[in-house]
Every structure is written in C-alpha cells, then in structure tokens.
Amino acid sequence: VAIIYISHRIDEILAISDEVTILRDGKVVGSYPASELTNEKIISQMVGRTLKNQFPPRLNAPSDKVVLMVDHVTSIVERSFRDVSFEVHKGEIFGIGGLVGAQRSELVEALFGLRQIASGSVSINGKKVVITNPRDAKSYRMALVTEERRATGIFPLLSILDNTMMASLQRYSNKLGVLDRKRGEAAATAGVEALRVKTPSMLTHIQDLSGGNQQKVILARWLVTDPEILILDEPTRGIDVGAKYEIYTIMADLAKSGKAIIMISSELPELIAMSDRVMVMCEGRVTNILDRAEATEERVMTYATMFA
C-alpha cells in the first residue's frame, strides 16, 4: 500500500516517511529522502528563509493589575468543568493545557457567553459581571478566536473584508442601525494590513486563503473591536511553521501592549514557550497553575493526567 501523509507536524513526517515533498505557496520546492532531512531543513524550505528560533523573544511584562478573575465557576452541564478559579493579569499570556476531554474549550466558551454557568462568579477589572451571550462579552471588551477555524471561525463564501468587519458592525453603525461602511472598511483594511495577510484583494473569498492567512483575518476581526481580553483557542492549529511564528509574534506584541491573553494549546512546546503561567486541567478540574519557570512538558503532562 502506498501512503501519502500530509502534516504540519515535522517530527511525525520525519518519523514515518521514506520520502518528503515540501510545498510553499502552492508550489513544490523539493523532494528528498527523509533520511537527508532535519527539522531545520524542512522549516527553511517551507518558509523560504532560515528560521533560527521557533518562538519570538518575549518582551511583555505582566502587571499586578488583575483584568479577569474567575471564582469557583461550574458548568450547568454535569460532566463538564467544575469549581474552576484563576485570574489573568494585564499584559499576561495565560496558557491553559490538558488532554482531550479536559473541558478547556467549554470553559472559555462559557466565559464568552456561549455556554451556561451554574455557579461561581466572573469579575472584570474588579467588578462582577454577568455574561449570558457573546454580545455581553463584547461589551466587556472580550474576544474569542474559536478552536475550529473552518467550522466556527470563517464565513467561507464571504470576502476578507466582510469577514473582518463581522464583529464590528454595531461599532460602525449609527443609532438607527445603518452601517457606515466607509469607516468600517477602512478599519478592517487597516487591521488586515497590520497583520500582513497575504491576499490579492480585500474582496477575495476567505476560503481561498491559506489556513494561516485565514487565522490572521479572524484575529484582525477581533482586534478591530479593540478587546482588553483576547481568548485564543488552539491559535496555530493546522497552519505551517512560518505562519505559526507570525501568530506568535502578534501574540507577543499584543501582550507587550497590555492585552490580557488566554491561550489554549495542545502543543506542549507552544504552550510552555508562549505562556507566562500555565493552568493545567484534567476532567474538568484545575489540577495546578504553574509559573513559567516551573512549566516543563513532564510536569504539564503529570497534572494533565492526574485524575485519569
């Protein structure tokens, strides 16, 4: 049986392949015996340049100001997250790790008003808030980039412009609900350009972009709303190493500017390298919150399987 195996996980490619063909921007850049390749060689071929570091330098300095406090929050669904407490500081990247079924996505969706909370409280900037839907969350300057880009992130048949404006329609409408399209388009275009989205035109259908550029458009959509708290659920899933580095750089810059970022990631190197603190969950409960210096792959995995 001949097998064609496609993956962004380079370790997998090198472990199981006999021959590797590398593509960049829709074109084959070379085919090689796997035995002749290394991670570094594949990365340089994929991005067209030498990528010395997998992650950008971290220059953010989390402040003492608590932007978001979650206090003993429990889901209305019985077999979901229970008794979860944590706080996120201004300028901090707060990572959430755990295995499939740890209820990480369910937790952040509840914080954004997509799921119901049975008990516990949420405070933003020291004031308790009640968030029952995404409109409430947006009013408190929260934003959520969901886990499944194609299923719940993009509007595939709409343009990049429309996708970017989607979360800001109310922001650029008058009291009668009439959209000031000129102002909205200017803000959307500026957002897309700031994130260096590769596209022929703002009118290009978003489904025609690469996964990495689609993800940057979704990020631009929420950044146009000027959020204070940005939740990123698997922000680099299904995108190549070059686009990953760009996403990491955007995250680092946002944290440096004072944004509070919550990041869910199943990739341990990403979770540890990009987070100031890591909260580990298992079967809906928090098993530990680790400072950056304490967070190793072994420790995260230990706590991720504590109740298994």
What can you see in these coordinates?
This protein is an alpha/beta fold. Helix content is 32%, strand content 23%. It is built from eleven helices and twelve strands. The chain has helices at 10-16, 39-47, 104-111, 134-139, 149-153, 160-165, 181-194, 211-223, 241-256, 268-274, 297-304; strands spanning 19-24, 27-33, 66-75, 84-89, 93-97, 117-124, 127-129, 142-145, 229-233, 260-264, 277-282, 285-291. A six-stranded mixed beta sheet has the order 8-9-10-5-11-12, sandwiched between helices. The two termini are 37 Å apart.
Which tags fit this structure?
308 residues, alpha/beta, six-stranded mixed beta sheet, four-stranded antiparallel beta sheet, 12 strands
Q: Helix proportion of residues, in percent?
A: 25-40%
- Beta strand %: 15-25%
Mean pLDDT: 92
Give the strand line-up of the largest sheet.
8-9-10-5-11-12
Characterize the largest beta sheet: strand count, sense, and whether it forms a barrel: 6 strands, mixed
- Count of β-strands: 12
Uncertain segments are: none
Structural class: alpha/beta
